[in-house]
Amino acid sequence: MSPYIVIDHASDIGIEVKADSLEDLFADAVKGLLFLITDKKPDELNILKGKINKRKIRLRFDAIDNALIELLNRIILLTYSKGLLFKDPFVKIRKNRLVMKSNVIRDAFSLMEREIKAATYHDYSIKNEDGLYYTSVIFDI
After folding, report:
1. Which pLDDT score is estimated for 48?
2. Residue-wise pLDDT tens digits, 10-51
3. Which of the four pLDDT bands, split at 50, 70 and 90, describes residue 9?
4. Which of 30, 72, 85, 117 could lock 105 by a disulfide, CB 3.0 to 4.6 Å apart?
5. Rounded (5°) CA angle 96-99-102
6. Residue spans of beta strands (DSSP E) within the chain
């Protein structure tokens, strides 16, 4: 079962994510964003060979809620400006710092099916209920 579901929102689109840990919530949100951009699940992108590198994104944040939106918007910027698709993300969070390591598909413009402009704060929150983390993120398209 997918760790995220796609939600329609007026003229925008979004994802709902549920995970066992905050770090998995962030990684699964990145996977959901990748799906929105490509209409492909990460395993479907595993067939690509030769154009894959590793990349890190580092963030400092004041509030954890801001960190996810900032991470997603940084990924959106790198995706559409440099043709990078982040797959297999691994996230570590320590105090007010986040590091995401990921395999990155380079020159991936041809795999992009939808333009995502930004992750928004509309109806956004991160919740921890009964040991599970939840979020929903709406994206401008």
Report:
1. 65
2. 778 999 999 999 999 999 999 999 999 999 877 787 766 657
3. low
4. 85
5. 160
6. 4-9, 12-19, 52-60, 85-94, 97-105, 118-119, 125-129, 132-140
Bridge partners for 55 per DSSP: 102
Tokens representing 75 are: 């990924």
Between CA 45 and CA 105 the distance in angstroms is 9
Q: Report the domain count for the chain.
A: 1
Sequence-distant (6+) residues with CB within 8 A of 5 are: 15, 16
Please give the Cα distance from 86 to 94 (Å, whole number).
21
Asked if residues 88 and 31 have their Cβ atoms less than 8 Å apart, the reply is no
Q: What is the mean pLDDT of residues 84-103?
A: 95
Record the tokens describing residue 60, joined without a space: 């400092």
Q: What is the CATH number of the domain that holds 45?
A: 3.55.10.10
Q: Whats the size of the chain, residue-wise?
A: 141
Structure tokens at 47: 């067939």
- Could you give the 3-state DSSP secondary structure of residue 82? helix
User: Where in the sequence is the domain holding 114, given as residue range(s)?
Assistant: 4-140
